[in-house]
Amino acid sequence: MVRAVPLDLTASRRLVVKVGSALLVENGAPRADWLATLAHDLAALRSGGTEIIVVSSGAIALGAAKLGMAKGGRGSLADAQAAASVGQVELARLWAENLGRHDVTAAQMLVTLGDLEDRRRYLNASATLQRLIEAGAVPVVNENDSVATEEIRFGDNDRLAARVAQAAGADAVILLSDVDGLYDRDPREDGAVRLERVEGVTPEIIAMADTSSTSGLGSGGMLAKLQAARIAERAGISLVIANGTHLSPLTRYRDTGIGTVFVPQADASARKAWLAGRLAPAGVLTVDDGCAEALAKGASLLAAGLAEIEGEFARGDLVAIFGPKGERLGQGLVEYSAAECRAILGLREDQQEAKLGYAPRAAVIHRDHMVQA
Ligand SMILES: Nc1ncnc2c1ncn2[C@@H]1O[C@H](COP(=O)(O)OP(=O)(O)O)[C@@H](O)[C@H]1O
Ligand SMILES: N[C@@H](CCC(=O)OP(=O)(O)O)C(=O)O
Predict the structure, then answer these.
(1) Domain check: are 181 and 41 in the same one?
(2) Do the Cβ atoms of 330 and 321 come closer than 8 Å?
(3) pTM across the whole model
(4) ipTM score of complex
(5) Residue 360 in contact with ligand 2 by CB distance below 6 A
(6) Distance from residue 220's CA to the centre of ligand 2 (Å)
(7) What percent of the residues of the chain are helix, what percent strand, and what percent coil, each to the nearest 5?
(8) Whole domain around residue 56: which residue ranges?
């Protein structure tokens, strides 16, 4: 068998390192020795010319321990928000201390889903990351859990890491977890085999993730990691899932190559990749067979092909596109409000003006503002 080639982290120009809750926190206390070795690895990579961004979980777990909260602070949203407020203070201190030992300045950056979903705010976050790195700091990013509410939060730091990588123009992401990579089924099952390399996060790959299991402290599970891999591959970013439980986890990955590498697909423009990675559509357009076929060939979505409209959205909002059998086809920025879409549903272009009372825009979603699933 040909040995799969691991991702060469030292070849990365800008790398996002994501650390899961289970790695940082054990029985409510930080894994101090482990963190010291990770900081050492990060400093070494940085000295070799790789710019580093850390995405660190652990605020909820640390805060819950301090407050004596049940269920690791995940019993309710209010608990998670309060636990995160307390834990984030400690998390930032841990990073500042551990990176500081190598004369590296840590910079805390807390973001919400909205900060990366709205194009203007996304560009702003992107500029801040850029400036911090130029200034020689290592951004340590987490979700702003204390203000994020259920509908507008990532909830897992895997997708957040992929979006941050995109915003920062990183070329690689490593998700450090408590498992050696993606297995073809839950790794606790007999006969589970690890995949060395994935070219394209297909529905078959997604089906391998057991949605019910996480390490216990985290929230994402393998499914969130695969969604992150999908965002990354579409943005032309390499992503690897590796086991971070051991001391000096990055050195260990370099020496053993144990992990799963997701190969990027580099064809999308930066804007389309951003669009593909957006996570919160405001509505759903269901289209008929003919329209689904046309979309697959790269056409714009026309009102004539609309079969059903769900949700309330305004012009410019993100909507998901589904085919007649309920299959997800893609998503895009809509040119009409939900009410207008309902009014022109199924109509040909020449019938739309009579219905709306004004000249219609050519497409409901222009192909330049659409990405396939
Ligand atoms: N197909 C799979 N391959 C690997 N791990 C899986 C799979 N399905 C479920 N898992 C579970 O996902 C867990 C990792 O997710 P999670 O606990 O959220 O990690 P983290 O806290 O590092 O983000 C593993 O411990 C494993 O039990
Ligand atoms: N933002 C949260 C972490 C979210 C989360 O659980 O992520 P993960 O442990 O990576 O599945 C925190 O700091 O506790």
Answers:
(1) yes
(2) yes
(3) 0.82
(4) 0.94
(5) no
(6) 7
(7) 45, 20, 35
(8) 9-274
